[in-house]
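Q: I have 293 residues here and want to know how they pack in 3D. Can you give me a structure?
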Amino acid sequence: MNKPKLKNALLALVLCTSVLSLHAQDDGIPVTSMSRLRGLGGDARQFDQQSKLQYDQMLNEAHKKDAVATDRNPQLIRLRGIAKRLIPYTARWNPDSAKWDWQVNLLRSDTVNAFCMPGGRIAFYNGILTKLNLTDDEVAMVMGHEIAHALREHAREQAGKNTATSVVARIVGAAGAAYLGMDPRVGDAVGSGASRLAALQFSRSDESEADLVGMDLAARAGFDPRAGIALWQKMGQVNQRQPIGFLSTHPTSKDRIQNMQDNMHLVLPVFARAKGLDPNKLPPYHSLALPRS
């Protein structure tokens, strides 16, 4: 092959690789702009400092009760290994996360819960691992979901939303009271009720977004996104007495599963690529049974 042809072939290869790389970033769950209401929730750096203070205080209190797992704890080693795989993909959703001081801790408690505070401060309660008998894929779904809240700055956004809705609610309540000739305190109470309902809806929206972002993170890290469905099936079994979805700050397990199923076609190819598998020939996902009560 002569030099011009070789040069053209190499250029074509570079262009093809660039297109494939770009496609790899663009597939999966689409990245959307974050809410401008975050600005009403306060300065981002100050919010992060407050979060760090709260996280450190929580750890200090837990240490006093000998409730923090040591670095040699197998479950903590497992959690940190899963986090190490997820974190490289967080910058797609929030470029600032590349500079975060990520932490993962395990708290000895039967509580079925986990969280990630602004700045990448993650904590799991032992109960969520043992009571749900989670696979690594399911742990990745929980962790991805909690990380997503921090990446999308839902806490600061929620603070901004609460500020906005409370102001609007007071105005509407006062206007309604004046128009109807009611006691202004009654109008204020009505406005406060509307504000709380609005906040609930915002929270459910954030939870749904976190489910999808978490699926995307997990899939890119090579964790099966179908684990999210198994996870919420387990949650539904453990928490059969759950609040009605409309009045809950969290969607029902049924709603979450439907949301994930509706978007599964976007993340399965990402997972397949990460594992080097044919997306049309993926083996079925296998969960673990709940522990006997």
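Q: Anything worth noting?
A: Residues 184-220 form the longest helix (37 residues). The chain has one domain: 33-281.
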